[in-house]
Design goal:
The chain is mainly α and 71 residues long. It is extended.
Length: 71
């Protein structure tokens, strides 16, 4: 019974790992936008300002409001 509980718990946690997508997961705006347009798991996290453009600050993006780089 204890093994069954551990297996079920592991399966419950597994899908949440795929939702941990962020702009750091992509190298370019085009890659992030393709993921966003496909509406894959976690895609809403890529558009912080809700303008339909994912990861604006990545290379190739509109670079509208980007956080300042730390020194």
């Amino acid at each position: 019974m204890k093994k069954l509980f551990v297996v079920c718990l592991g399966l419950a946690v597994l899908p949440t790992a795929s939702f941990a997508v962020s702009c750091k997961s992509f190298k370019t705006h085009a890659q992030a936008q393709a993921y966003f347009n496909a509406k894959k798991p976690g895609y809403k996290r890529l558009d912080r300002d809700h303008d339909g453009s994912a990861c604006d600050c990545l290379p190739g993006g509109p670079q509208k409001v980007c956080p300042k780089k730390r020194n």
